[in-house]
Amino acid sequence: MDKILLLLIMMAPSIYAAGPRWDNTIGINDPDLTVITAAQQCHKSLINAPEYLEEWCEKAYSMGYWKALITLSLHTGDGTRLLEEAKKRVAAKEIEAYSTLAWLYGSGMFVGQDIDNAISLHKEFLALDTELPNSLVTTAHFELASLYKSQHNWLAVKEHAQYVIEHSALAYDKEQAVSLLQLANEKAQLKINY
Question: In the prediction, which pLDDT does 192 show?
Fold first, then answer.
């Protein structure tokens, strides 16, 4: 009896982890399967069912959810398809592709790190002749401030951090932008004093 109780206590976290986050009842070939459900299964499988990740992410991708390639690339360690897809979508001016491609270049994930290219992508995104969601605009400004920080371009850091402070709806982003702004001011002051 004690062994069964100990086994149940040890299994409880894994049972819970598979419960609300992973649903084994969803069939990958179900004719009523939606893109949203396939995308959720793709993302959830990264932690809860890695043995199904490739199958679910390929399914989500085939149904039109191209960002499944992010999860798939992180899992396999090969971002070739993701890089090609993001480039193709940026060329077609798809707004959500810019941040993905900029992230790849800015982080050096699956490609040689190229901060200048990441900055150019964020700037190109901000210059698009279309209505852009405020959350994506403030995120682009935050990313620009961070990228310029890595280049020690304190004037640009201040400009983009200030934008985030004035326009972001998220308190955490504003706090991070304030920290970037303070750092930029300190660094600019040091430069003036020398």
Answer: 61
Q: Would you place residue 150 in the very low, low, confident or very high pLDDT band (cuts 50, 70, 90)?
A: very high
pTM of the model: 0.82
Task: Output the pLDDT for position 12.
Answer: 37
12-26, 36-50, 153-167: which range is least confident on average?
12-26
Angle of CA points 155, 158, 161, to nearest 5°: 145
Report the C-alpha gap between 154 and 189 in whole angstroms.
10
Q: How many residues are listed for the chain in this entry? A: 194
Instruction: Enumerate the domain spans of the chain.
Output: 1-76
List Cβ<8 Å contacts ≥24 apart for 33-37: 33/59, 33/63, 35/60, 35/63, 35/64, 35/65
Dist CA 49 CA 25 (whole Å) = 13
Distance CA 118, CA 99 (A): 9
Q: Write out pLDDT tens, residues 52-86.
A: 999 999 999 999 999 999 999 999 999 999 999 99
